[in-house]
Amino acid sequence: MGGLQLPLHSIHALFPKPNSYMSSLSTGCVTRTIALLYPSGNYAFRGAQGRFFHYTTRSTPASVQPVTEELMEEDYKTEDNPVSGNSIRRRFLEFYASRGHKVLPSSSLVPDDPTVLLTIAGMLQFKPIFLGKASRQVPRATTSQKCIRTNDVENVGRTSRHHTFFEMLGNFSFGDYFKKEAIKWAWELSTKEFGLPADRLWISIYEDDDESYEIWHNEVGVPSERIKRMGEDDNFWTSGITGPCGPCSELYYDFHPERGLMDVDLGDDTRFIEFYNLVFMQYNKMDDGSLEPLKQKNIDTGLGLERLARILQKVPNNYETDLIYPIIEKASELANISYAQADDQTKMKLKIIGDHLRAVVFLISDGVPPSNIGRGYVVRRLIRRAVRTGRLLGIEGDGKGNLDGAFLPTIAEKVMELSTHIDSDVKARASRILEELQREELRFVQTLARGEKLLDQMLEDASSSGQKDRAVPCLSGKDVFLLYDTFGFPVEITAEVAEECGVKIDMDGFDSEMEKQRRQSQAAHNVVKLTVDNDDLSENISDTEFLGYDTLSSRAIIESLLVNGKPVIQVPEGSEVEVLLNRTPFYAESGGQIGDHGKLYVTEGESKCKAVVEIKDVQKSLGNVFIHKGTVIEGVLEVGREVEAAVDPKLRQQAQVHHTATHLLQSALKKIIGQEASQAGSLVAFDRLRFDFNFHRALFDNELEDIEELINGWIGDAALLQSKVMPLSEAKNAGAIAMFGEKYGEQVRVVEVPGVSMELCGGTHVSNTSEIRAFKIISEQGIASGIRRIEAVAGEAYIEYMNARDSQMTRLCSTLKVKAEEVTTRVESLLEELRIVRNEVSAVRSKAAVYKASIIANKALSVGTSKTIRVLVESMDDIDADSLKSAAEYLIAELGDPAAIVLGSCPDDGKVSLVAAFSPGVVKFGVQAGKFIGPIAKFCGGGGGGRPNFAQAGGRKPENLSTALEKAREDLLTILTEKAS
């Protein structure tokens, strides 16, 4: 919804009868009968209930003209025809385009905003404009925005309206029109363009918003009994504790008007569905809670595409629209299930798969591979939930004959078929998306297998505990949640298996753990923080003019000085300061490249220096204002003074070298390991570069060598770089690659190494590849699941790196007394000698331990009446863990079966080693070494475990070893005496 309100509700309405082709439209708009989806030809659609519809298209629509459709149904009455989701999206955008709105593309699901994890609303890309931190490019805009919300993931499939991935249709005004136009257009769109019956629409407004009431009632004509005033929780949008806010008004559809007008509750989901939300952003909330009017009033709206499609296609829920149902149908096919004949639980599972596959396909396409952190964890959770749901449905194999294959890629292919009108880039990234899904699913299947083993162990422990306490065995809620959350083990299967073993599960405890996680998720991921800070500063400071592409020094005027974030007029020597200039040659950190270093000089007369500021960092703020951070090392700095701004040329050159080398590295990766290697982050520093990319394995040595050779070859070609500014669409059509995490306007800067690389980039670069001199990879490693990192050096940093390596090699040669080419052979020889010596020492230690064991063997105690069991629990001083194991093995053989051995030692300061060895006869009594040794190790501040017949443990409290061994002796004697009597 616009403005990040509560999630939209679904809607339902009657489609207008097609015998009235011409709609009543606003003045100046041309009405024509046009294609529903395509400029010519036919389009067939099969509904979720098996109905077959046939669309005939006639002509191509004008770009800004509202549209109507001619529909023909082959087997049913014309009035039952649905409208395609793609048509609804197009008609919405064209409706607002015809009213002066600029149609802008959806932004990425990865927001350029540190306050949110994922794009959760249509307004997010306009946040800087709403805050006044970026100037508006257009006065009004309209979008269809891809969104992800996971705070209500447990409701997906259970309700008719909850999704993780959805599209939000929105229209926005940036200080242009306000309530009257927003309200009238929303009504016209709903009742005329989409034909929703006016007598079925209800309106909610904020309780004190008389202005909205007057417009809805007096100008639009909505009866007062169908306008409901609601409180702050429902109809007053706020961005946070402080910041932009305002009342909102929502449009609801009435499923059951026959219920009348008395005691109406718009929150009743069985009757009403909210489908359009209008946020009137007109106040700034202050620290004390008071509201002051914003100088620029804004409109932020949201209409859920899936919900409107549900209404116009006359299906019982969002999932059975043509936006999602084909995906569900594919899942049904793999599960060999008829969706139409399935029960509610089965339908819910199919809906989960349909929803989650949409989300993960678009997330991976936008550069978010599955991982254990941040956005990647969201993807991993959704994939795992889809996999375990598919297993519950009985899906086996990939549906193409491979029973050991992954099924998610097969369903994902259907998602991609439907993605064209949402995001045309998805199909181009198909191979990477399918590979990620296959790899993640097959890996998770193995995790599920481990979860099954853990469940078996948990059930065994619960049964033992129940027998001991003479109570009904019960699996704790925490254990059930651990299986669900960590191993993705379905609660239904946990309950079923537990029941077979006579064990109950604590569902209340599980629900408590789930609720705790849900609250944490909502707190972390479903809030967009907007604040209006430093209003005076933002109003008085304009964007900084950047001159750094063409010069490294320039004259500039100090427009503002900040100390500890507060504006000041004057800054004395020795103070940390932030300087805002009207123009600058300094590059501000962005696109992975760090900010320039250098100095600001304030001169008096021709040569006398009045002040000097050493700049150590430059950042962007308030849109495009450059903040020069540094220290006044001489004199006094004052606002309004003219300065000479001088960038450190040596450091700038190194930044340029590494930035251009980063572009070459990305091109080399794509050539050597494949096009699926896409950027996931970067750092361009003075002394090195760091490049993160999506790839599923470590690179081989020969691949790294080929990458270096390719890059150094391009450097040697001495190619001239070309940079130019062009429209974003033209740049993409030319094949330019976008830098990860960057946000682009309509005009972009394209940096090209002819025949090698073309990227959208605002960074600084060398003019000729020969300036890079040389390139060297210094490391390649994994930093997260599916994310690799390369660090490299080039230019002067390469020389410094190689000189340091040469110096180290020289010292090594001197130490080993060999030539450089003989170092490897000599080191391998020394390592082999060391291995032999260590083995000899280990053998001697083991013999010594066995000898000590032979001495203490006569200390073994005998227990039991029907069968004598030998028990030995002793300390062996400072013997190491391996030798302790040898001693235990000797004693088990020496004492015979049945026997139980527990030995302990303190091999090093602050370290305890424990070992337990039980013969087969003892294990048959139900006494297991792996379970026995763990609680004993806790006395020594540690833990451990192992097999039933042998286990090892450790600890960090040697002072407690005697107590631990005494406990072990006491427990063994008690347990075995009872077992053997």
Helix content estimate: 25-40%
* Helical run tally: 25
> Approximately what portion of the residues adopt beta-strand conformation?
15-25%
Unreliable spans are 1-81, 522-536
- Mean of residue pLDDT values: 83
Largest sheet, in brief, is: 9 strands, mixed
Tell me the span between the first and last alpha carbons. Answer: 73 Å
Shape: globular
By secondary-structure content and strand pairing, the structural class works out as alpha+beta
Radius of gyration from the alpha-carbon trace, in angstroms:
35 Å
Number of strands: 39
SSE order and pairing:
Layout: E1 42-46, E2 52-56, E3 71-73, H1 85-97, E4 102-103, H2 127-130, E5 140-148, E6 165-174, H3 179-193, E7 201-206, H4 210-220, E8 227-230, H5 232-235, E9 236-238, E10 243-254, E11 272-285, E12 291-304, H6 305-312, H7 325-335, H8 344-365, H9 374-392, H10 408-417, H11 425-428, H12 430-469, E13 474-475, H13 477-485, H14 491-500, E14 504-505, H15 507-525, H16 535-540, E15 545-546, E16 553-563, E17 566-568, E18 570-571, E19 576-581, E20 583-584, E21 598-604, E22 608-621, E23 625-635, E24 637-638, E25 642-647, H17 649-672, E26 678-684, E27 689-694, H18 701-716, E28 722-727, H19 728-733, E29 737-738, E30 747-753, E31 757-760, E32 775-784, E33 787-794, H20 796-816, H21 823-856, E34 861-863, E35 869-875, H22 881-895, E36 899-905, E37 912-918, H23 920-924, H24 929-938, E38 943-946, E39 950-955, H25 961-979
Parallel strand pairs: 4-5, 7-8, 13-14, 15-20, 29-31, 35-36
Antiparallel strand pairs: 1-2, 2-3, 5-6, 6-12, 7-10, 9-10, 10-11, 11-12, 16-17, 16-19, 16-25, 18-24, 19-23, 21-22, 21-25, 22-23, 26-27, 27-33, 28-30, 30-31, 32-33, 34-35, 36-37, 37-39, 38-39
